[in-house]
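Hi support team,

I submitted a single chain yesterday and got back a structure, but I'm not sure I'm reading the token output correctly. Could someone confirm the output below corresponds to the sequence I sent? I've pasted both exactly as they appear in my results page.

Thanks,
R.
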Amino acid sequence: MMYSFVLSGDNLVVMVNNHPYTVNNNHPNYHAIMNGIKDNIGVDDMMSLINESVLVPERKFSDEFDNVTFDGDNVYVDGQVLYHSIVDRIRQFHKENLPYKNLLKFINNLHSNPSFNSREQAYNFLEHSMMPITEDGCFLAYKSVDSNYMDHHTHKVCNKPGNTIEMDRSKVDDNPNNHCSSGFHVATLRYASGFGGSRSKLVIVKINPKDIVCVLIMRNL
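Hi R., thanks for writing in. Yes, this is the structure output for that exact sequence:
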């Protein structure tokens, strides 16, 4: 059994037996893992470095939603420590006695998403865009529609408040470079407000993160 890796920014993804393990520079063994890749260490040694901090002592308490657990310090998904900015937010809310269980539900929903790229990009998108996360772990975004609540491109999809719209995932373009391609699109308030012209309406859309197919982050929005 061998492993491969991909480095994207501060995130290192190590693939072992077709299973991805995400490690960022907050991981206690980040530098040891990087050196291990350079030294071509074995799979067992690599997994020991990745999983060292996953061994959890007796917990004072535990919040758990399906495959997601928070012990007051770390968030675990299927027993693996999660390293993302959302975890820092959960720790902060827990420390300040603010509600955070919706964030755990969001993580649980997101990790039902079959797309690795969508799962990785969603955290950064919501953090950058200041998207609200609902009590049931979904999130709210914005969409510009025409005066009759129909979509701007085909004028066939009704986005009237209260409607639930669906589309076969296999028909959605998952390439973030193909703007305005096949699929349902949502955006930040700033972007959506300036799209479609003066006769457009703006609607708030509730989305389950498991249904995210593609994320485009535009830093000036």
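A quick pointer for reading it: The first strand starts at residue 3 and ends at 8. Let us know if anything else looks off.

Best,
Support desk
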